[in-house]
Each structure stands twice: as C-alpha cells, then as structure tokens.
C-alpha cells in the first residue's frame, strides 16, 4: 500500500566505495507514546492524526524513524498493552485509515515507522479469551492461554507461586463454576498466551503480515523474553520476584524457547523488502544473554536496559558500554542505547533532577548519540522534560500504581503529554485539556519556547542529530577509549573520552571542572568552554564533541 522510504544508507568508513550500512544499524528512533504526543480531536488523548500532523517536527529534529506505542483496539487497562483486536485501531486513537495515512506521510518525510506488537498476552476482552471463559476447562479455547486448576483442598490457592510484574499473584481465578485460574504476568486484564499452541503462532504471523502489508518498517516486540514458560510452570520459591527480572533467568522470563519464535519472525521480516526489522524489549540477566536475541537469524535490535539503568559514574558507564559493544559485536548486531521510555522515571530526574539533572541529562544525550550503533529518544527528552512527581492519585492510570508493590507506580509521571507551544496548558498538545495534567513550568520547556535558543536542550538535540548525519565517524563503526591517568595523553579519572574516525567525545562526569588537552575542534558542547593554549577547562557534568 505505501512506499518504503528510499533506503537511507550511511557510510561507516571513508573510502572509494564505502559499504552501505543497513538503516537500522545506526538509526535514531524516536518513541511516540501515542496518547501523550499530540491530540487532534480535543478529547485530551493523543491520537494518530495528531501524531501525523507533528511528523514534520520529527523530520526536522533529524531522527530516522518513529516507534509508535500500541494504538490497537483495547480497553486500555495498561495503556493499550492489553490488545482486544490486533488488526483494528482503537477509536480513541483513530481508525485504520489514520494508521495508513500516518505511515504514508512518515515515508514521504523520509521517516520509517515501527509499531508495537504485544504477543505475550492479549486483553481479557480479546475474542479468544471471552471464548475461553465461556468454554470451560479442557477445551481448545482454553488451550490458547494458561488455565490451570488451583491448589489446596478446593483449588482456592493459585497453581504456583509466580508474582505479577505489577505486584500481587500472577494468577486470577475465573468467576465460573469450574474455578480454574489463568496466568497473567502483568495485570489480570492481560492473560498470557500459550505459545506452545501452534494456533497462537499462526495467528501472530498473520497479524505481522497485516501490518507489514500496510507498510510498517518493523515491530517493537513487547515482552520478547516472556512468551515461553518453563515446562510444568515450576515454583520459584521466593517472594519479590519482580526484583529478579533482568538479574536471573526465571521460569517465566528469558527461557531459551523464545528464540525459536524470534527466528521464525526474522524469516517473515526478511521475506519483505525494504529492510523491515524487529526490536526486542527483552530483560535478560546479562549482556551476553541479551545478545542471543539479536543473533543474525533473530531480531535486529534489543533495547539496552543495562545502559538505561547504569548509575552516573564514569567507571560504571564505561563498563556498560564495553560490555554492550562486546556482546552485540560477538553476534554481529549493532549496539543500541536508550536513556528513557514510557516505563521508567525520566532521566533528568533519575540523574538527580533540577539543574544538576538537566546538566547530566544533556551530557548523557551527547554521550549516547556519539556511541556506535542505534539510539532511542523518548518523546520529550529532547525538551529536557523532568518526571512529574506530584500527580494526584485521582488522575493516575498506571495499573502498576494500583497494584502497589510491583513497579512502584512510577509510570504515569513520564507519560504526561508534551508541551508544544503557548503559555497555558495543554500547551498545544491539543484543542482542549490533556489526560494527565501538565506542570505550569512546562510553558518554558515547550518546543516553541526552546526553538531558536542555542542554549536549549531542544537545539542541542537538533545540532547533535545534524552532526550525526554529517560526521562520517558517528553511527555504526569503531570507537576507542583514550588512556586514563596522569600525564599528557591521559584523561583524568571521572572523564570518559573516546575517539571515532575523525571525531572525539569527552564527558566530564565529575561535579568539578577538569582540565584536558584539546583533542580537536569543538563542534558541540553541553556548556560553555574555556580554552587556554592547548588545554580546555571542561565544566562539571559536561560533554563535548570534537572534530579531529
Ligand atoms: C512493556 C511495556 O513497555 C509496558 O508499558 C507494559 O506494561 C508491559 N510491557 C506489558 O505489556
Ligand atoms: Mg484525541
């Protein structure tokens, strides 16, 4: 239906016939959290038409692709990650034509489009689950999910000790006379599918084809590490299991069996032209296990949550960068870098908030965009938005908040609709209101307020993304660290410094200024610099890009 954009290739190395790099190896991908990006119809909820109208902003910002969070038909028990119909657009967000128009318009602007796919679970309103409830134990409809009798004399105890990521047991008992329980690793409104059932795999293949035929450039695969459960659904034997996610293999996460699914999806993606990709949202205990998701015959990328969760500390950052490059490199995949998304506290706030948080966030952005591989930008981070930490309970919608002990209810504060322009809320987000209230200070952080101000975070991102396209050493390709220590060549402890072909990046993570030997011509800095002879004074928590 729609045309894919002309392959935007970049050159990794200078030479006579530079090899073409597949677009996704160094793409900057902008995450649109649809309900909070732009509202076209005044219901206070962002939608596909609103997003389409704002695409020129993203093309001008200089990103290569957008990732849209789920806009499918859904009761919205978990912000659309509870899908009732994978081939329909929820009326909240528009219709199928709007999805088609958005993809076409993005391609016209040279932007690729990745959509979210949610294969681990459906909504409890999905036709399959309604059928399963109606049908009763033992039937084919129940076999698409994980239904089990309970333990205890009357089956009054859950079938095993698994906990929901959002808190509480991972099992809910059906109201029916049969008294079976069903598994949901997330909210009770999100029953887990049984991927051992070939019907499930066949249905998802058909859903992927539906969106690929419509022209999308790929999928962000939700809970890509969770689709297969250990045989027999064994107990874990301890509480607070959410704390183990990403730290060890669990009987419900990062099971080896998931890789067969990703392999089959890769074959499907490769059967389409135009470089369609799959991106794993996978929480794996180590970079090595994460790399298994991006082996040559599996998905193309995986989010690097080890980078996201890394503390503000030079040694820790360097270790994560090295591990990430080594592990993805060992399977020939590009590294990816991400600082924020719709599930975590925005990084200005994570880094300490206030002026310090902003300073660090700006420096981290330049670090991220200078590293080899592909980077993800979460809407509003280019405006330096902080987490909204004082939302009244009455407006909160995150199921994790209501289930309490799970993800600590942190996820509404990063989902507040973004400010575009004007002195009053909703700051151009839409004609009227926004589903979560925006802080009054955000009028100073809007796109319009920051545009043209060379000191603004927005202009920093614009410059960085423009340079990333202009400087051949950035994106895919090699990097090497500068030696640390005393003496002429060494950089002080607490400073991260590395070279890429024709380029250098220096990041002072310390709270005090440091002096460095000038490594080249400064092309971008997160704070003003002072030069004396051959040295530069790098202010506290500042990052500088140099052309060498
Ligand atoms: C990860 C998504 O990013 C998150 O928002 C969602 O709640 C869970 N997966 C469950 O689908
Ligand atoms: Mg709307």
Automatic annotation (TrEMBL):
Keywords annotated in UniProt: Glycoprotein
UniProt record, GO biological process: oligosaccharide catabolic process
Short name of one Pfam family: Alpha-amylase
Domain Glycosyl hydrolase family 13 catalytic stretches: 31-415
Superkingdom of origin: Bacteria
InterPro entries listed in its UniProt record: GH, GH13_cat_dom, O16G_dom_2
GO molecular function ontology, one term from the record: alpha-amylase activity
The keyword Glycoprotein appears for this protein: yes
Protein family per UniProt: Belongs to the glycosyl hydrolase 13 family.
Name this protein carries in UniProt: Alpha-glucosidase
Gene source species: Streptomyces caatingaensis
Lineage of the species this protein comes from: Bacteria, Bacillati, Actinomycetota, Actinomycetes, Kitasatosporales
């Amino acid at each position: 239906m729609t045309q894919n954009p002309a392959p935007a290739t970049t050159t990794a190395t200078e030479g006579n016939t530079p090899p073409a790099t597949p677009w996704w190896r160094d793409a900057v991908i902008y995450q649109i959290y649809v309900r909070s990006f732009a509202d076209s119809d005044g219901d206070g909820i962002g939608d596909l038409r609103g997003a389409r109208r704002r695409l020129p902003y993203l093309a001008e910002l200089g990103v290569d692709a957008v990732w849209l969070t789920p806009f499918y038909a859904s009761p919205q028990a978990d912000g659309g990650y509870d899908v009732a119909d994978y081939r329909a657009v929820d009326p909240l967000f528009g219709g199928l034509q709007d999805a088609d128009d958005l993809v076409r318009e993005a391609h016209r602007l040279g932007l690729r489009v990745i959509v979210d796919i949610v294969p681990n679970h459906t909504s409890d309103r999905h036709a399959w689950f309604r059928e399963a409830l109606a049908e009763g134990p033992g039937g084919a409809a129940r076999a698409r999910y994980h239904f089990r009798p309970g333990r205890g004399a009357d089956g009054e105890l859950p079938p095993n000790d698994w906990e929901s990521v959002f808190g509480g047991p991972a099992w809910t008992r059906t109201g029916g006379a049969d008294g079976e329980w069903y598994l949901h690793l997330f909210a009770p409104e999100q029953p887990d599918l049984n991927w051992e059932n070939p019907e499930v795999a066949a249905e998802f293949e058909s859903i992927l084809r539906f969106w690929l035929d419509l022209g999308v450039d790929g999928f962000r695969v939700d809970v890509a590490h969770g689709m297969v459960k250990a045989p027999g659904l064994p107990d874990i034997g301890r509480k607070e299991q959410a704390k183990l996610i990403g730290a060890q293999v669990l009987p419900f996460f990062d099971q080896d069996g998931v890789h067969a699914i990703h392999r089959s999806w890769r074959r499907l993606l490769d059967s389409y032209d135009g470089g369609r990709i799959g991106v794993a949202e996978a929480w794996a205990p180590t970079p090595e296990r994460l790399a298994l998701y991006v082996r040559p015959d599996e998905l193309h990328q995986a989010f690097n949550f080890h980078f996201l969760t890394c503390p503000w500390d030079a040694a820790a950052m360097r270790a994560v960068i090295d591990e990430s490059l080594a592990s993805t490199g060992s399977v020939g995949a590009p590294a990816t870098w991400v600082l924020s998304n719709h599930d975590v506290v925005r990084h200005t706030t994570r880094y300490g908030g206030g002026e310090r948080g902003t300073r660090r966030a700006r420096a981290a952005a330049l670090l991220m965009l200078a590293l080899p591989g592909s980077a993800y930008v979460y809407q509003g981070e280019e405006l330096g938005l902080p987490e909204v930490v004082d939302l009244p309970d009455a407006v909160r919608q995150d199921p994790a908040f209501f289930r309490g002990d799970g993800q600590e209810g942190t996820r509404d504060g990063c989902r507040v609709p973004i400010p575009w322009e004007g002195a009053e809320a909703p700051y151009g987000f839409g004609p009227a209101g926004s589903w979560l209230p925006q802080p009054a200070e955000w009028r100073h952080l809007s796109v319009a307020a920051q545009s043209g101000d060379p000191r603004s975070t927005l202009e920093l991102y614009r410059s960085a993304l423009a340079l990333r396209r202009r400087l051949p050493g950035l994106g895919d390709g090699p990097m090497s660290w500068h030696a640390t220590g005393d003496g002429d060549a060494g950089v002080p402890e607490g400073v991260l410094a590395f070279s890429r072909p024709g380029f250098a990046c220096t990041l002072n993570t310390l709270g005090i200024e440091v002096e460095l030997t000038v490594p080249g011509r400064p092309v971008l800095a997160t704070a003003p610099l002072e030069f004396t002879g051959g040295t530069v004074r790098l202010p506290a928590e500042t990052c500088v890009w140099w052309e060498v």
